[in-house]
Structure formats: C-alpha cells, structure tokens
Write a structure and sequence with these properties.
- By secondary structure, the protein is α/β, with parallel strands linked by helices.
- The protein folds into four domains: 228 residues, 3-Layer(aba) Sandwich (Rossmann fold), CATH 3.40.50; 84 residues, Ubiquitin-like (UB roll) (Roll); 89 residues, de novo design (two linked rop proteins) (Up-down Bundle); 57 residues, Alpha-Beta Plaits (2-Layer Sandwich), CATH 3.30.70.20.
- 41% of the residues lie in helices and 16% in strands.
- The strands form four sheets. Strands 3-4-2-1-5 form a five-stranded mixed beta sheet, with helices on both faces.
- Strand 8 and strand 9 form a beta hairpin.
- Helix 4 packs antiparallel against helix 5 and helix 6 runs parallel beside helix 8.
- It is elongated and about 90 Å long.
- The protein binds flavin mononucleotide (FMN).
- The site of flavin mononucleotide (FMN) has 23 residues, from strand 5 and helix 17.
- Flavin mononucleotide binds next to strand 5 and helix 17.
C-alpha cells in the first residue's frame, strides 16, 4: 500500500505537524500557525471564555477515561488558591502504545501551547510534563522546546505582554505503569513513592502539593491550540455525538501496516484494520484486536463494525484507553494473551491495595495452570468471581481494569479456555505444554536434520529409512525440528 492509500482514510489533526516540521526549531511550528491560538487566548479571552470554548468543542480526555476536558478545567478554575498546576501526562506505559511519545517527539510545541492555554484557563502559573525516562528523545525535544519558547517569551513571565506568567518543567518518571495513574503521578512528581491514593479529593481540588491541579494527557493538550485556531465548531463537527474530534492510535501486532494513525472518532475497527492497516500479515485470518492496552479488552471479528467511540467500546467490555491497538491472528492463543496482560498488571501493581496485589497474582496463577493443562472447569467461574471482586475493590484504575483482558477473552473466546481445560489442547498451538510435534511419515525423507538439531535428542531414526520418530516423553516442544525441516515434514498438533 502506498502512502497516499495509507493516508486516504485518515484525518491528521493532532499529527498534522509530525514528520513535516523540524520539531527542534520553534520557527517551523510558528510558521504553521503555532502559538497563534495562545496569543489570541491570552490577549483577548477571559479564562471563563476559554473553558466555555473547550466545553463547546466536546473535547474529552485522551488518556483513557474520556472525562470532559472543559469540565475538568472548570472544577480547577473554581477552586480558590494562589497556587495551581497543570500536569501533562506523558507516561504512556501500555505495551504497544507510542502515540504520546510520537507527539512529544514530533510536535512538542503543540503540547506546550495546550498547557499554557490550560494554565490561563484555570489560573495556574506552573506546569509539569511527566515523561518516562525510557523516552529520551521525547524528553530532549520537550526540554529544547521549553528553552526555545522561553527565549521568545512564549513561556515564562508576561507572555504576549498579557501579564500572564506560566513556566513549564519536565519531570522524569522511572517507568512504572502505575505512575501514569494521576494520583500516583502526583506522588511521584512530589518526590514520593508512586502509589495512588483514594479519590475524592480529586486533583482538580487537591492535587500536586495539595493544590488544585489539572492533569491532562499529551494528546488532549495537543488538541487545544487547534480547537482555538479552527474554532470549537470545527472540532465538534468531527466524530460522533458524544465522542468528538479525532483519535491517534498505535497499530501493532499481526497487521501489515503497523505505525501511528489518526482517524475521526466513530470509524469502525474494520476500517482501521483492513483499509488503513492493510489487513493481516501473511494472509492469515483475523482473530481479535486488543484495544486499550492492559486495561482494555479483546474484540472479535463479529464486532469489528462497532464504531470506535468511548461508549461503544465500554459496551463491548473494552475501552478506548490511550490508543494502543494490538491485532491478533489465528496463531494467537487468547488464554495466553490474557495471561500475558495479567502478568504485566500483576508485575506493575504497586502493591498498596490487597485486591490488586494479591488478586491479580491469583488470577495469573489460574491462567498459568490452564495453559499447562492443569486447569479445572471451576476455574472459569473462579476467574469471573475474582475479576468482579478485584474490579470493585481495587484502589485505582490499574486494579479496577486489570481483569478486562481476561473477562473479554472469556466473553468472546470461552470455548478456547474450555479446549485447554477439557481437551488439554491449545487450538492455536501456542501453549507449549499442550502441543505435540509429530513427523508426517509421507513427507519425511529421513535426512536426519531434525535429529541433529534437537537439543534433547528426542528424535531417532535411521538415515535414509523414513520416517523418523519423536519421543514425546523427551521432547521439550522447542519447535527447532519443525523450523529446520526442509520438507515441512513436522506438524504441530
Ligand atoms: C494504571 C493507569 C495508567 C495510566 N496511564 C496513563 C498514561 O500513561 N497517560 C495518560 O494520559 N493517562 C494515563 N492514565 C489515566 C490518568 O490517570 C488520567 O485519567 C489522565 O491522564 C487524564 O488526562 P485526560 O483527561 O486528558 O485523559 C492511567 C490510568 C491508570 C489507572
């Protein structure tokens, strides 16, 4: 697929500058109308007007939950305090997600512009960009952008001679998934352990250093300047009734065209996967798409025509999340996928609350035994019960959403769990304890390559006297024989 075809079904608003301008040169951003919206806001709008315009645009947070941005700003604006803060959430810890990183690397000034406008709206004079240290280019570009904006008086004291002061600093995260959660992030920025705390009080009332704070995702903030530049009506004209604007997705997995895409809200998953993504690699069959990362859900073929918006995805047991899309094909085992994500959340659980710390571990243990053929039928109901308890009683979104990949795979692929449990068989041939390698007698030429490559000497036979034989009791299912057989004479069953 050529670039023209790839871009045909996309609408680049947030990504409009990415790849086109030199992000290390502020003048290139300015040449594409950068900082014009901020200038207009600071010199001719009252803070309340700014909030009204954002509300009118219908912008909702792109960090996962989809909370209306205008309402969030309004709560913080109403809080009476001399010190308030804006935090840009650039933690992005989901496996397979790289949207925010790309915006910070490709258009850092759009993020700064959004932060200054947000600061003006709520009456804050300081902002922090929280970026994980594993994103060194993003960190470098954001720091350079702040320096260049400060030199031109676009960040700092008396911006545009409006009397408004706003300065920004970058704060590095150490790469803990939980630190993307807003209250854990507040602790991390304040130099404390990155653990969440109960809400209320919400950060808009008592956030960083207990002061009113707005925390917004990178992509949310990158939309702000454009909303003022093109008008809230323009933004509200894109998308669906309740989900306005565009969304950036990171396409990953078994898809032909991986990479970043931006589409209007409301397009279907089918269109993303097949029209833009170019379908499944190696002509294989589509099986499911995981949307929303470890907090999200797996959506099967039957639901590919669902529009992508916050509410439709929740109905399917998934969520928009920050925009990671991982496509799976027939060679993926859904139990193994659920186990992978549970392993991730269990690993990343901060351990503060018991349901998340212990519950995710127990769920992972159950999935582990199912994938090695030791599962029981009662495990299915046990998984569902545990999932419900963890969802209801965990302290933060990490635990509350951790069971989602398990619940959604149980909802749409329960028969695959049952095949592992009842038949001790992994239909996708992924769970190594549940697969067997066997030599196909008609194809074997007794070339002996398999016997020579086998690391545990599980294959025997006489040269030139086919077929060779695999001793199942010795075989460790590494698949080396199958990979090396020049005659495709070894089958995985
Ligand atoms: C475990 C966990 C990780 C999160 N990671 C991120 C993240 O990397 N980036 C992000 O913007 N929001 C993340 N969130 C959501 C934030 O808590 C918060 O809702 C968001 O930054 C608000 O910004 P928005 O209103 O612009 O979406 C995470 C939430 C949870 C529970």
């Amino acid at each position: 697929m050529g670039q023209k075809e790839y871009l045909k079904n996309q609408q680049r608003e947030v990504l409009q500058n990415c790849g086109l301008i030199n992000p290390e040169n502020i003048r290139e951003y300015i040449a594409r109308d950068g900082y014009q919206a901020m200038g207009r806001v600071l010199t001719s709008c009252q803070p309340q007007d700014v909030i009204e315009q954002i509300k009118k645009s219908g912008l909702r947070g792109r960090g996962g939950g989809g909370f209306p941005t205008g309402r969030k700003w309004e709560y913080a604006a109403r809080a009476v305090n001399e010190d308030k803060y804006i935090i840009c959430n650039g933690d992005e810890g989901d496996p397979g997600a790289f949207m925010d990183r790309s915006v910070m690397e490709g258009d850092p000034h759009a993020v700064l512009e959004g932060m200054v406008i947000a600061g003006y709206a709520i009456g804050a004079h300081r902002g922090y960009i929280y970026v994980r240290a594993e994103y060194p280019v993003a960190v470098e570009r954001m720091e350079l952008a702040i320096k260049q904006a400060r030199e031109l008086g676009l960040v700092g004291k008396n911006i545009f001679s409006s009397g408004f002061d706003f300065d920004i600093e970058v704060r590095l995260g150490a790469g803990a998934f939980v630190c993307g959660e807003e209250t854990a992030m507040l602790n991390s920025i304040a130099g404390k352990r990155g653990e969440p705390r109960p809400r209320p009080p919400f950060p808009a009332v008592a956030g960083l250093f207990h002061k009113p704070t707005v925390i917004n995702n990178v992509e949310t903030l990158a939309n702000v300047g454009r909303i003022f530049l093109k008008g809230p009506e323009y933004f509200a004209g894109i998308g669906t009734e309740k989900s306005k604007g565009t969304k950036v997705f990171a396409l990953a997995g078994k898809i032909n065209n991986t990479g970043l895409i931006e589409v209007p809200m409301g397009v279907t998953l089918r269109s993303i996967i097949f029209d833009i993504g170019g379908g499944i690699q190696k002509g294989r069959k589509f099986k499911a798409v995981l949307i929303g990362g470890p907090s999200g859900g797996c959506i099967p073929e039957d639901h590919l025509d669902a529009p992508i918006d916050y509410d439709s995805l929740l109905k399917l047991g998934a969520m928009m999340g920050s925009g990671g899309l991982i496509v799976m094909d027939e060679s993926d085992c859904m139990v193994d996928i659920a186990k992978f994500f549970l392993e991730f959340t269990q690993d990343e659980s901060c351990g503060k609350c018991t349901p998340c710390r212990v519950g995710t571990k127990r769920m992972h243990e159950i999935l582990q035994r199912i994938t090695i053929g030791e599962g029981k039928e009662e495990d299915i109901s046990l998984l569902k019960r545990l999932a419900e308890d963890i969802r209801k009683s965990s302290l933060c979104g990490l635990g509350q959403t951790a069971p989602n990949p398990v619940l959604s795979t149980l909802r749409f692929f329960e028969e695959e769990y049952l095949a592992h449990i009842r038949d001790k068989h992994c239909p996708a041939g992924v769970c190594s304890r549940l697969v067997r390698f066997e030599i196909i007698p008609e194809k074997c030429t007794a070339c002996s390559i398999c016997a020579r490559i086998c690391p545990v000497e599980a294959i025997s036979g006489e040269p030139k006297k086919p077929p060779y034989f695999i001793h199942q009791g010795i075989c460790i299912k590494c698949g080396a024989c199958q990979a090396k057989c020049p005659f495709s004479a070894i089958a995985k069953i």
